[in-house]
Amino acid sequence: MEELLELKTLLLKGDIKGSLAIVEDLEDMSKNGIISAIRSYAVILLFHLIKQQAENRTTRSWDVSIRNSVREIKRKNKRRKAGGYYLNNDELRETLEEAYLNALDEASLEVAEGRYEPEEIETKINKEQIIDNAFLLIQ
């Protein structure tokens, strides 16, 4: 809110350069919030894909969570008015890569009733296959 008040003040003074700098800051803050939300849903998506692969099974609950996460990632990533996407394919894949370790940690609490450390689970799964699968689901 403070930025909007400052923007208004600068516009009233005719300071276009200062106003544009604030607009850029506001755009960055907005994009960072969207990326953060996408990353949170990516953790949930990867978490369930890891569990599926590690336990070689699925449940309706996991399937629903996967579908919901994919929908939310797609919804958050789509630019409504301007068209296009906030994250291009490379950035989306990078976000999945960044979310992977958090998802692996979460999975270690549930796979085989929490008996394995993240490093042990990682030996039972194929990280690239999981990330590729997540990426394809989002596409």
Automatic annotation (TrEMBL):
It comes from Crocosphaera chwakensis CCY0110. Pfam families: DUF29 (PF01724). InterPro entries: DUF29. This is DUF29 family protein. PANTHER family: SLR0416 PROTEIN (PTHR34235:SF1), SLR1203 PROTEIN-RELATED (PTHR34235).
